[in-house]
Amino acid sequence: MYLKYAFIRTLIFITCLNIMNKIFKTIGIVFFTFNLSALDDLTAIEQGQTWELIKKSNKLSLHNSKVLYFFSTDAFSTYQARRFNDWNNFSITDSRNLVRLNKGDRIKIMKSKHQEKIYEVELLDGFEKNRKYFVIKEDLISDFALMEKTNET
């Protein structure tokens, strides 16, 4: 008799856990899709925009500096290495092909490449200013702030 009640309590407990699990998954999906749509609205990157580096960065530091890439293929291979977590096959970038930035440096968006994962930019500050480089979209969103919008007419 005791085993019968223990078995019924176990079934009820498992059923409650399954129901709670489904509820939490549903809530998680709702919040996740809400956050993705909010992120898409905030990250409208257009040609001609000026962005300023707001994260801590020092041109002289080899390990704690934000970078721009000379070649779009280097930026894209780094993007793929981050995405697939495979640094041996994808990211083969010579450090001499990087431009290190200081906090406050500004860039201007020129055009997108590689399905809008990489952007061609023009550096507006520093010794290497008025040259074209490449930046990864995720780095642009997380490390830079939009300064102004220019209307092209």
Q: What do the pLDDT scores average to?
A: 84
Beta-strand proportion: 15-25%
Could you tell me the radius of gyration in angstroms? 24 Å
Most strands sheet: 5 strands, antiparallel
Number of helices: 3
Q: How many distinct folded domains?
A: 2
- Taking the alpha carbons of the first and last residues, their distance comes to 83 Å
| Class per helix and strand makeup | alpha+beta
What is the N-to-C succession of helices and strands? HEEHEEEEHE
Sheet with the most strands: spatial strand order: 6-5-4-1-7
Helix content: 25-40%
Q: List low-confidence stretches.
A: none
Per DSSP E runs of 2 or more residues, the count of β-strands stands at 7
* General form: elongated
Explain the overall architecture.
By secondary structure, the protein is α+β, with helices and mostly antiparallel strands. It has 2 domains: 1-42; 50-148, no CATH class. The protein has 3 helices and 7 strands, in the order αββαββββαβ. It has helices at residues 2-42, 72-84, 137-143; strands at residues 50-53, 67-69, 98-100, 106-113, 118-123, 132-136, 144-148. A 5-stranded antiparallel sheet has the order 6-5-4-1-7. A two-stranded antiparallel ribbon has the order 2-3. A hairpin with an 8-residue loop joins strand 5 (118-123) and strand 6.
Using brief descriptors, characterize the structure shown.
153 residues; alpha+beta; 3 helices
